Automatic annotation (TrEMBL):
<feature type="domain" description="Aminotransferase class I/classII large">
    <location>
        <begin position="149"/>
        <end position="481"/>
    </location>
</feature>
<protein>
    <recommendedName>
        <fullName>Aminotransferase</fullName>
        <ecNumber>2.6.1.-</ecNumber>
    </recommendedName>
</protein>
<keyword id="KW-0808">Transferase</keyword>
<comment type="similarity">
    <text>Belongs to the class-I pyridoxal-phosphate-dependent aminotransferase family.</text>
</comment>
<keyword id="KW-0032">Aminotransferase</keyword>
<dbReference type="GO" id="GO:0006520">
    <property type="term" value="P:amino acid metabolic process"/>
</dbReference>
<dbReference type="Pfam" id="PF00155">
    <property type="entry name" value="Aminotran_1_2"/>
</dbReference>
<dbReference type="InterPro" id="IPR015422">
    <property type="entry name" value="PyrdxlP-dep_Trfase_small"/>
</dbReference>
<dbReference type="InterPro" id="IPR015421">
    <property type="entry name" value="PyrdxlP-dep_Trfase_major"/>
</dbReference>
<dbReference type="InterPro" id="IPR022518">
    <property type="entry name" value="Aspartate_4-decarboxylase"/>
</dbReference>
<dbReference type="InterPro" id="IPR050478">
    <property type="entry name" value="Ethylene_sulfur-biosynth"/>
</dbReference>
<dbReference type="InterPro" id="IPR004838">
    <property type="entry name" value="NHTrfase_class1_PyrdxlP-BS"/>
</dbReference>
<keyword id="KW-0663">Pyridoxal phosphate</keyword>
<dbReference type="InterPro" id="IPR015424">
    <property type="entry name" value="PyrdxlP-dep_Trfase"/>
</dbReference>
<dbReference type="InterPro" id="IPR004839">
    <property type="entry name" value="Aminotransferase_I/II_large"/>
</dbReference>
<dbReference type="GO" id="GO:0008483">
    <property type="term" value="F:transaminase activity"/>
</dbReference>
<dbReference type="GO" id="GO:0030170">
    <property type="term" value="F:pyridoxal phosphate binding"/>
</dbReference>
């Protein structure tokens, strides 16, 4: 029973329609076979051949979803069937470099429609996306380009909203960054006798300091699984509008689809925000490496680039001269693409085209699910597992409105004091450590959990994923934790 990379688990038909489309693409390549070699798919009359292909599948798993995409794709994407079909078929074969390098044209339309529905509800401003190799790559690319373009420099003051995903704690300390980090810490809060982790007004007020150039957040958080409450987002808007208008906000919204009515900071502060989103968690696709970086068409990053000192502007003209002679008009999102391949290899930049097709198909699957049956099922699975675990450990249940139910984090020492007495907790603390407790839990009870301190949590906190084990295992996790405590 191991805490590891997390996922809900793929529905088979969401994978099958990718391979079914791939099967059609292979048949298109074989139409121009020369001996052992196959050619590239041909656009001429492809539409008719695809309709014949779908009819021939009869009860083939994945056919219904692919047919649904075929029938409604034109309406969703706003383009002719022939255009997007040819792009998807050519892309799924992987026979060409990604072009455009940021993201393929009709893949972009599908992903944008998905993000507007699931993550950016209420967003009025146009935005661009860069398809990347999962959220991990998005994090790396953003940090690198911010430094490469002098938007952040070693020693600059940034803020981290913690607890948070461990790399956000570790990257700023690397020698090439060495940022001065201000921690903005969430605290447990009860709403209607339910638990949530939120940032006090006093903590958020730290961002009024205009010397803080950027703030990094995971929303909903990892590992406390709480989304920002409305008052906090309103406070951020006020801070940006009145005290820190050049604040760069980087938000990682990978868990947003697990919160019933999620609101992204990007949707209310698009000018100041760069948003990372990964398809990994919601679609159980960590191995696919599918993610995006979203930036508003007009944004603070481009504005700050235009106002750099002349010495920096000249250095960037030299850096990007192999791509453009008009560096001042070279957008930050396109610099992200170039920097991802050390500029010199920009001609070969971009996420592999089969991966882009999978992202588009995931997006279209969600857009076709008008009853949101998949979302409701995914959320209910996590919440039921949470219920089993929390009841076994007698923990205060989270406040559903802000809760992603993707992780459970609790302070083991405080839990022991609450349930077995203050003295028991003090004796336990004196006789062992959280590391020893977790090692014994693994070695003697076959259960591997992570320390919450690695995410910026308290010394005795532990993190439990609610997404990667069988549902009935979560009651057993609680039993083993209790058993290990009474060794």
């Amino acid at each position: 029973m191991r805490e590891g990379e997390t996922r809900i688990g793929q529905r088979p038909h969401r994978v099958r329609h990718f391979f079914l489309l791939g099967l059609f693409a292979v048949s298109e390549m074989e139409r121009v076979r020369q001996g052992e070699l196959s050619g590239m798919p041909a656009r001429i009359e492809m539409l008719g051949r695809f309709e014949v292909f779908l009819e021939a599948q009869s009860e083939t798993p994945g056919k219904n979803l692919l047919t649904g995409i075929w029938r409604k794709g034109e309406q969703i994407l706003g383009v002719d069937k022939h255009d997007w079909l040819f792009e998807f078929v050519d892309a799924i074969t992987g026979d060409n470099y990604p072009n455009p390098d940021r993201v393929l044209n009709y893949v972009e339309k599908a992903i944008k429609a998905y993000l507007k529905k699931e993550i950016f509800e209420g967003l009025k401003k146009p935005f661009d996306i860069f398809a990347v190799e999962g959220g991990t790559a998005g994090i790396c690319y953003l940090f690198d380009s911010l430094v490469n373009n002098f938007l952040l420099q070693p020693g600059d003051k940034i803020a981290l909203m913690i607890p948070t995903f461990t790399p956000y704690l570790e990257i700023p300390q690397l020698s090439r960054y060495r940022f001065d980090v201000v921690q903005i810490r969430s605290m447990p809060e009860l709403i209607d006798d339910r638990l949530t982790y939120q940032f006090s007004s006093r903590e958020i007020e730290k961002l009024r300091d205009s010397s803080i150039k950027a703030v990094f957040m995971v929303n909903p958080s990892n590992p406390s699984s709480s989304a920002l409450k409305e008052e906090t987002i309103s406070k951020l808007v006020d801070i940006v509008e009145n005290d820190n208008p050049e604040l760069m906000i980087l938000t990682d919204d990978v868990y947003g689809t697990f919160v019933p009515k999620f609101q992204s900071v990007f949707s209310v502060l698009p000018f100041n925000t760069a948003c990372i989103y990964s398809f990994s968690k919601y679609f159980g696709a960590t191995g696919w490496r599918l993610g995006t970086i979203a930036l508003a068409d007009e944004n603070v990053f481009d504005a700050k680039l235009r106002n750099l000192p002349q010495a920096f502007i000249r250095e960037l003209e030299i850096r990007y001269e192999v791509i453009t002679k008009e560096t001042t008009n070279f957008k930050f999102i396109d610099r992200l693409v170039a920097d991802s391949r050390e500029v010199a290899l920009n001609h070969a930049a971009g996420l592999s085209t089969p991966q882009q097709v999978q992202m588009a198909l995931f997006s279209l699957f969600s857009l076709l699910d008008e009853e949101e049956s998949y979302k409701k099922k995914a959320q209910s699975i996590c919440r039921y597992r949470q219920k089993l675990l929390y009841e076994e450990l007698d923990l205060v249940m989270p406040f559903d409105h802000y809760d992603s139910a993707y992780y459970c984090e609790f302070d083991l020492l405080e839990w022991m004091k609450t349930h077995f007495g203050e003295q028991f907790g003090l004796d336990f603390q004196r006789e062992t450590s959280i590391t020893n407790f977790l090692m014994r839990l693994a070695l003697e009870h076959g259960l591997v959990l992570l320390k919450g301190s690695g995410f910026g949590g308290s010394e005795w906190s532990v993190r439990i994923s609610l997404a990667n084990l069988e549902t009935n295992d979560y009651k057993e996790i609680g039993r083993r934790i209790k058993k290990n405590g009474f060794r």
